[in-house]
Design a protein that fits this description.
single chain; 239 residues; alpha+beta; tt1808, chain A; 2 domains; 6-stranded mixed β-sheet; 16 strands
Length: 239
């Protein structure tokens, strides 16, 4: 049954933010997200009739630096050799199949997925050549860095919806604790299945079936209590 009105989940709403009537449907939300009235800051997601709004400021060291290191590492692996595209922040992903419109922290789209039509770029209503406002379909890899305001969404709701969208791989990173968590989840017949870390060095390396490599997210303490993520390391999955 389709919802009759949008359900709002609001972590922190700034003064002046208004949700238009009738955005309980995905297509209506998409039109709003394309418009000049759509907020230019914060994260606003549409999750099967629910609108989740998070206006919390991004933590610089438990979110920002980790996201930057992951995005930079994936970019160096994917873009220069021509394997595909990497988007960091404010790249809107829409899945009609999953009833989803979100802005993940990092998105990877491989060239073969674009060629096969599994992902297509969507222009705004006032289309201009080469200008796009969202991607529709199932990108190959999505990364979410967990924050205090997004734990339930990142751990529970989004994995289920990303699986419904048919996204092959999901990375979840939690850098809020003294021992960080870097997880790679691969889509199976029953949803996402977590890839086990390297048994010879638990927590150091985890295999990515999609990219055919093992990854490790390295950080060092620059000055209490800050952490600097200086490298997303990768190696051949063969050893």
């Amino acid at each position: 049954m389709r919802p009759t009105q949008a359900s709002l989940s609001v972590n922190q709403v700034e003064e002046g933010l208004r949700i238009p009537a009738g955005v309980n449907e995905l297509e209506a939300f998409r039109r709003w997200s394309h418009s000049r009235q759509f907020p230019r800051r914060g994260r606003i997601d549409y999750l099967q009739g629910d609108i989740e709004i998070d206006m919390s400021p991004e933590d610089l060291f438990t979110h920002g630096t980790a996201k930057a290191a992951i995005g930079a590492g994936l970019h160096s692996l994917i873009v220069p050799p021509g394997r595909g595209l990497v988007f960091i922040d404010r790249a809107r992903l829409v899945s009609v199949a999953a009833g989803l419109s979100v802005e993940p922290d990092v998105v990877v789209v491989l060239r073969e997925s674009l060629a096969a039509g599994r992902v297509r770029m969507v222009s705004s209503a006032k289309a201009r050549a080469g200008r796009y406002v969202e991607m529709e379909g199932a990108p190959d890899l999505v990364v979410e860095v967990i924050s205090d305001s997004s734990v339930s969404k990142d751990r529970k709701r989004l994995p289920r919806l990303y699986a419904q969208a048919g996204i092959p791989e999901l990375w979840l990173v939690d850098a809020r604790r003294p021992v960080q968590s870097f997880e790679i989840w691969s889509l199976g017949s029953a949803g996402f299945e977590r890839m086990p870390p390297d048994a010879s060095n638990p927590g150091a390396w985890t295999a990515s079936p999609l990219l055919g490599r093992c990854f490790s997210l390295l950080r060092h303490e620059a000055q209490e209590p800050h952490f600097i993520y200086h490298e997303l390391k990768s190696r051949s999955s063969q050893g």
